[in-house]
Predict the 3D structure of the following.
Amino acid sequence: MENFLKIDMDTYKPLREIVFTTMREAIINGDFKSGQRLMEVQLAEQMGVSRTPVREAIRKLELEGLVVMVPRKGAYVAGLSSEDVREVLEIRAVLEGLAAQLAAEKASEADIIQLKDIVNKFQQAAADQDIARLINYDSDFHDVMYRSSKNKKLVQLISALKEQVQRFRVAYFTKIKNTHILIEEHNELLNAIIDHNAQLARQVAEKHISTTEKLITSIDEKK
């Protein structure tokens, strides 16, 4: 059985919700690959459930755009088109730039200490070529920066894109080699926040998202 499909039967949530959440996280975290076929019987056996909650989960995932149904062939994990990447990252660049600007103005000493710690851990993970840690620390760095903006509504807006961004993050960290670019930009952003340079923080954050888009695009071009 695939470990990522192991479900927690001790929770009070309905079984259909547990199955849906498990499959959704598997797609977002890259355990299910883009274009992979999702077979009801096999998935039901792996999770130890009947086909009904699996079928319901696939339908809900299709509505969210994470699964596509191909006539007479079945369900497949939706791919990440260059248009998807562009549209999401255009929005994220604006929101992230504002979050960085506000973080430079409002970050507390505790926020800065936490950001420094994550940057150091990210660099060590890069040195160790530990992809799982790179993904986690990159996510942590941005999450702490968002919270440092002290703007709850902004954090909510960014969170709405979090799952799509996580799919991009998994895609490029599993394939790119030049993590030094991301390390440099994390450090630039951290220093701008430490110096309370709001304008520079915004510029660096927007450049960072542009870099991400270029890295993902370069992956697509190499396929």
About this structure: Residues 82-106 form the longest helix (25 residues). The radius of gyration is 19 Å. Strands lie at 37-38, 67-70, 74-77.
